[in-house]
Design a protein that fits this description.
By secondary structure, this protein is α/β, with parallel strands linked by helices. It has one domain: Class I glutamine amidotransferase (GATase) domain (Rossmann fold), CATH 3.40.50. It has an 8-stranded mixed beta sheet with strand order 2-1-3-4-14-13-11-8. A 3-stranded antiparallel beta sheet has the order 10-5-12. It has a 3-stranded antiparallel beta sheet with strand order 6-7-9. Helix 2 links the parallel strand 1 and strand 2.
Length: 250
């Protein structure tokens, strides 16, 4: 009887451990330690509470990460979102993110301004433009910097998506096999490098607005715009994209 009781105790402990591991695997953290101003626990039009609700509806435990990114702060986490960072990541934080993805973690980055995340993007094999994109197709409310993109590649986040909307997006460029483009503008899109609102041939071309890649057992998705998942801009298409992203993050 004693041996049986001991065996049952071990089985119970194993079940508890497995359940706890499963629960931890559904945790997604939103970084708040790099000057982010648009947050999951705020209800305003530019905040991310709507996206947080979509994650929670998918069975995800949503939390925030104000501490430095490290192996310890990412322990038991399935996904990390860095949306609208205004301060750069330290080299040791980027190293921790690479290890996080190698062991199966998912990283999603949305740019408000691109330069602070230069070092991270370089490690992911992604370059970025010197300004936001202006379009001729799919323009929203007459603003060339706000537009819908419908040239989409193959990735779980894009499954079933025909288009989504952008509101001031930085152009991205995959520089090697570490990443690939999963959403593109038209070939007539352009960057106003001279800030004179005059389009030239050198400024014109098709730009990626989202890139993705695999790292070990995990991977990353980078969007050139952080507005797409803010409360104000969660239209039907962007909401469908958010649902896919939540599923991928967990």
């Amino acid at each position: 009887m004693a041996r049986f009781a001991k065996l049952m105790c071990i089985i119970v402990l194993l079940c508890v451990a497995i359940a706890a591991r499963g629960e931890a695997a559904q945790t997604v953290l939103f970084d708040t330690g790099h000057g982010e101003r648009f947050l999951v626990d705020e209800k305003g039009p530019l905040q991310l509470s709507g996206f947080a609700g979509i994650c929670q509806a998918a069975g995800i435990t949503v939390g925030t990460l104000a501490k430095p990114i490290s192996d310890e702060s990412l322990a038991g986490v399935s996904g990390l979102v860095i949306s609208g960072a205004f301060q750069p990541l330290k080299d040791e934080e980027i190293d921790a993110l690479i290890r996080f993805m190698l062991r199966g973690g998912k990283l999603s980055v949305m740019l408000h301004i691109a330069p602070p995340l230069d070092s991270l993007l370089v490690r992911l094999g992604i370059n970025f433009t010197n300004g936001v994109i202006r379009e001729h197709e799919g323009i929203i409310d007459g603003q060339p910097q706000d537009f819908r993109v419908s040239r989409l590649g193959t990735h779980p986040v894009m499954k079933g998506i025909s288009a989504f909307s952008l509101y001031g997006v930085w152009g991205l460029m995959s520089v090697d096999q570490r990443s690939h483009n999963i959403a593109m503008t038209s070939a007539q899109a352009w960057i106003d490098l001279h800030h004179d609102k005059v389009q030239t041939k050198d400024e014109t071309g098709a730009f990626a607005v989202a890139c993705a890649g695999n790292v070990g057992q995990g991977g990353f998705v980078v969007f050139g715009d952080d507005a797409i998942f803010q409360n104000k801009f969660l239209d039907a298409n962007n909401k469908a994209l958010a649902v896919n992203l939540a599923s991928w993050l967990k």
